[in-house]
Structure formats: C-alpha cells, structure tokens
Amino acid sequence: MKSASVESAAASAPSDKNSASEDSAGENFELRSLQDRFSESSRFDADSDYLLHLYEQMLLIRRFEEKAGQLYGLGLIGGFCHLYIGQEAVAVGLQSALQEGKDSVITGYRDHGHMLAYGIDPKIIMAELTGRQAGISHGKGGSMHMFSTEHAFYGGHGIVGAQVSLGGGLAFGHKYRGDGGICLAYFGDGAANQGQVYETFNMASLWNLPIVFVVENNEYAMGTAVKRSSAETEFYRRGTAFRIPGMKVNGMDVLEVRQAAEVAFAHVREGNGPVLMELNTYRYRGHSMSDPAKYRTREEVQNMRENSDPIEGAKAELIKMGIDEEKLKDIDKRIRAQVAEAADFAESSPLPDASELYTDVLVESY
Amino acid sequence: MSEVESISRTPAGDTRDLTMIEAINEALDIMLERDPDVILLGEDIGYFGGVFRATAGLQEKHGKTRVFDTPISECGIIGVAVGMGAYGLRPVPEIQFADYIYPGLDQLVSEAARLRYRSAAEFIAPMTVRTPFGGGIFGGQTHSQSPEALFTHVAGLKTVVPSTPYDAKGLLIAAIEDNDPVIFFEPKRIYNGPFDGYYDQPTRPWKGHPDAHVPEGHYTVSLGQARIVRAGDALTVLAYGTMVHVAEAVCRQKAVDAEIIDLRTLVPLDIEAIEKSVRKTGRCLIVHEATRTSGFGAELSALVTERCFYHLEAPVERVTGFDTPYPHSLEWAYFPGPVRVGEGIDKLLSE
C-alpha cells in the first residue's frame, strides 16, 4: 500500500538518515554541500525568452501591488494589506521551478505575490482584497487569507509562523501518498523566531519530509530590524541543530533564486529530507499600509531601489540580450491594462450576501 | 430507554464488555483498518502504546507509517496534523493530557478551526484531537484540568466528551469520520471503570456495566445527539463525562425522579433534548468538573434560561469545580462529588 521508505522514515528517520553515508554522521553532514554546489554555478542559464517570461511575472506582481496600494488609499481595500514590492524575484524564481499539479505552497500573510507567481487570476485575487463575493475565498479571507485548491496553494496565514508546521503536514502528505510532490513553506525573518518553526524543523528532519523551508529575509520583522531581534542573523544556519542543510541566496536576482531552487528542490526530491533557504531580499513599502516605516532611512530604501531592484536588473539584462526596449514598454502597457481590469472587477463585484456569515463554519449548520 | 437513545444505538455485531480504553483502542483499530488516510500520531503512542494504553498494539498491527511517535512538541503536532488534514489525510493526534494542549491552542484556534471559513470551504482540516482530561487521579494542577469551555468558545471546532465505553467507541468513530476538527476529551478517571464520586470506596470495573456492552465492528454515535441516561419528572440534570456517573449515583441514592441527560457532545449541542426535558421538569441542575466562571455550565444556564424561562419553577443551579487550580492534596474537596451534587438537587427541589 504505502512505500516502505515512508514506513521506516516515520519511525526511525534519525538512524536511517545517519546511516545514509559515513559523512552524514559527522560534523559537516550536508550543511554546506548545497551551498557549495550552488556556488559552483549560481545563476540559472536562461535564454531571453525565458527571462522575459520571469520578468513579466515579476512585473505583474509589482503593478498589481501598486494598484492594491492605490485601492487601499481610496478606501476600497480595508484592514490589513501587506505589499510584496521589492521581493518579486523570490516568489517568481522559486515557484517557476516547482512542478505544478504535484507540489504545494504555503505562506504567511504577505501572500499576493506568491499567488500571482502561481498564475492565479489577478481579478479574483484583487476581488478578495476588496472583500467581494467573486474573490478567491468569497471575501471571507481577505488579503492575508487566500487559498486555491486548483493550484495546491494552501494559504495565506495571518498568524506569524503558524503556517510552517502546516507545511510539515503537507510534506508528510506528499510522502505518505507517494505523489512525488514537495512542499514549499515560506516565512519571514520575524517568523523565524517563533518556537513552532523549530518544532517543525525537528519533525521534518526526523521524518525526512520533502519540504523546502524558505526564509524571506527582508531585514525587518514589521518595525524591528533583524539585528535587534535575532541572535543569529544568518538564518540559513538555523537548521544546523536539526541537520537541515542551509542555503544563502541573493533574493534580488531572479536567476540566482531560480538556480538555488534547482539545487534545493533536486536535493529534496531525491528523498534527502528538508532544506532551509534564506532569501535575502527587501521590501520597499511599509510592513502594512499603516506603517510609516520610520525605523529605517529614506536613503536605505532609495539605495536598494536604485542598485538592487530585481525587475530593473532583469530589464537591463534583457536589453543586453538584445530585447527591444519598445517590446518591454508594450509588456508594461499590457500588464497595466490587466491590473486595471482586475481593479475594475474588484470594485464592481458585489459584496457577499449577509447569509454567508454563517456558511463554511462547520460541515453542516447546527 | 428513551427515544433519543434508541435512535443512536445501531449495534453492528456481537457485544462484549470493554473498558473505555479498550473501546477507544478498538475504534482506532477499526478506523485504521477501514480508511488508509487515518493516521495516529502523538507522544509515546507508537512503540509504547500510549501512557493510558489507548493505542496499545496499534503500531505493531498497522505499521510505523500509520501509528507513530512524535517529539514533545504539542504546537507542532497539531500544526502538522492541520497540514495533513488540508492535504487530504485524516489525522488523529493525541495530546497526552488535556493540560498539555495549550501550546497547540494557536494552531487549533487560528488554523484548524478557521481553515474552512477563510478558504470558503476549499480546504478543510478533518482531524480528531484525542486528549485525556479531568481529575480524580491525583494529577494536581497540570494533569487534571477540564479545559473544554476554551474550545466550545471557538467557532469552527466540535467538542466531544464520552461517558461510557459504548459511547466512546461510537463517538470516536463518528469524530474521525467527521470533516471538521473535533476535540475529543476522554474522562481519564473512568477509563478503566465507572466512578460515581465515592473515592473512599473500592474501584469498580466496567465489566458488567450495561454501557460497557460494546458491539464488535463499526458503528457510530452521531455528534450532536444527547443521551437520556434516566427519564424522570422531578428535575433535569445536565452532565457529561465522569459527572454523569456521579449524578446517576446521587439520584439513585436519594430516590429522586430526575431526568439525567448526558450531553455527549458540547458542540454541536443537542439543545432540543435539553429544552424538551426542562420544559417538562421545570428545574435544571448543571454539573461539571471544570471551574465555574465562564465554564460550559454558564452557557447551558443561559440557553436554558433563554429558551425555558416561563417553564422554570426555580433558578437554574450549577454544581462545578471551584475557581481555583486543581489541587493535589485537596482533590476531593475540589471535585464536585456526591455531597455537593446532592445539595444542588435539594436546593432545586426545595424552591
């Protein structure tokens, strides 16, 4: 019924893992092996067509988020709204390496970009932000809580770090059913200080689960800089105590992210257990819409925008590859139109009926 | 037997006398056999078979992939189970004592209970968290608590408390088959024998008790269906878990013609059975072991008052644990035993 490897993994993973090779029991096990492999060739070899494809995905996230910011300002989006601007290369670089229909993704509250990178229709995402019936969760989830069974996208979770252990369960499911899938579990540098993350590291490593833990280190846990909140600021090292190999990746370069994903995913798919990836990135906007970002200087943000922007970087590379600038302008125009259409849809769709208040609480009403 | 009771009993095979632990073990065994998506996980539940032996022999029979030990990480255990449920499995995590469930509260409240709603039913978290609760075994304040009201307060969770081996098996199977997260509180004082609150008398075994006759094979006791333990006209007693046995003993000794209702599930609650009974008797006693303030009895009292006010002959009465931590040495002073339950009945009948 179930594969024998799962059987042994669930119960006696530690000994199995240690006996895999002599080295693995030693000090170095595989802590650095992935980083070393990644260093050998740290950028994905993409032709101009493929880079253009990734560029378009990043640009869609950027324009979508800009529009969401506007709609928030107009009062059409209420409550909480966490924009992904600046971090686009992470979701696009990683998720472009997933096998759709096989793998699963779970993330925290900054989830718009992860959904868009999955190719989910911007209209129904925007309609969820405005709380409409046509939204992907019928307006019941809102910005932080969005799901898609079709894309095996398991949310969208508003409690910092809570999604990580769910990811452990998803990875268990992949392994138990033997479906060949892996789980990509995102969390931030802030969530990395939650205890349950480490409970999950332990279980995932103990049971050799197919999971990639991704720390999106954007340098600020809401308003607190990493160095003020974290004793170990090199997050990729934090799996060491659980024998989880780590990788440190420049999250502002989509091809570097993609290459790191190739290395990490292959390791996990081969049945070697979890990997911890730290993606160094930066968010240009506040933590949420109500955040004036007074904990950092304007110059710091400006410097990142001017020198490290993932979209501008890809654009420069595309032009160098011979892509016509006019073509890039047309793409931007098309994406702006697509986003404007999503916003119109999100504004004009009806709110959920009041009767929806009591639906989907339990299987049946009582 | 009442109408309510006769509907819910659908024996599937020959009956034998089982303890509550044996009944729970059998329910788990049957579900592991029937549904490959059922998975048991928890601290010491695999190789060791559980500290109360509820999972004894199940790893050996069903393998280490289906029944396995976890680290001591309650939040992680529940979190992983939510992910398993969302994926499509049907996990049955055990939290070794209900007192240990608090680290997992974040996952139960914010994830398990809410996944269905915020995904507009695209994702569900079917899972049954089994956990022994209640006092009577000198566990002191961290091995005796009854935290059920914390969970009935959370929209999106179901809360179940069996009081007999028959119900334990049928309710547990129903809980595992249910597509919502269920907190299944097992009254540990009555795992191995019914307990009527007379702590100074010899313990009795389940063997020979009418509710210990447990059919073989698969059957369910529907969630949301109370059991009329004893029909009567003088007053209605609402109880669950161990306290059902205490109430029964007191009414028998005092020869009070009480109608005792075993709620079986707190959410969903069989409010119709309660309403029907209180309208008939006009008096209502609520008994639970948990502390009094904001206990489930407060909710029951409000419901009875809202729905039966003009039928009441006396104010609703509660007999509960005190608003203190569960004491070690004064366990029997805390436990709402036969004396206090008897006083509650006297007070209600004197009005």
From TrEMBL, chain B:
PANTHER family cross-referenced by the UniProt entry: 2-OXOISOVALERATE DEHYDROGENASE SUBUNIT BETA, MITOCHONDRIAL, 2-OXOISOVALERATE DEHYDROGENASE SUBUNIT BETA-RELATED
Name listed for the protein in its UniProt record: 3-methyl-2-oxobutanoate dehydrogenase (2-methylpropanoyl-transferring)
EC number from the UniProt entry: 1.2.4.4
Gene3D superfamilies linked: 3.40.50.920, 3.40.50.970
Pfam families: Transket_pyr, Transketolase_C
CDD domains tied to this protein: TPP_PYR_E1-PDHc-beta_like
Gene Ontology biological-process annotations: branched-chain amino acid catabolic process; response to nutrient
Cofactor(s) essential for the protein: thiamine diphosphate
Enzyme class: oxidoreductase
Gene Ontology MF term list: branched-chain 2-oxo acid dehydrogenase activity
The keyword Membrane is assigned to this record: no
Keyword annotations from UniProtKB, A to Z: Oxidoreductase
Transketolase-like pyrimidine-binding domain residues: 18-193
Keyword Nucleotide-binding recorded: no
